[in-house]
Fold this protein.
Amino acid sequence: MDCNDKFSIARSPYTPPEILAKLAADEDYLVRVGVAENPDTRSETLAKLASDIHDKVRVGVAHNPNTPPEILALLLTDESLSVRASVAHNPNTPPEILAKLASDVHDKVRASVARNPNTPLEILALLLTDESLSVRASVAHNPNTP
């Protein structure tokens, strides 16, 4: 079976969680990305993938809408800006994690917090005064901004 086949299986909504767990150990990082992004991947598997050496796999975990808050909290301090921005964008990220990400050094992360519909109004008000135009624009586009 080649990488493309395994990637398709990893992303499929019909792949059983047991198979996803096996594919999570695949040597090809793209297969692991497919598993990380699959909403049917179990939290135990996502927890293992959250420490993957490849940042695209960790981005997949951070982006997965079913990643539990405790795993998102682990990714809060990830060295990769893309991982932190994906945590900030995830609709299941708890407000306390969004509050920490609102002060990230990179405006891409702060803009993702500003776009998240679950960002509390107090944090949106803080981001409205951000030095970055993209962050302030993201606050304006948030559906919960008054």
Notes: The first helix runs from residue 3 to 11. The chain has a mean pLDDT of 95.
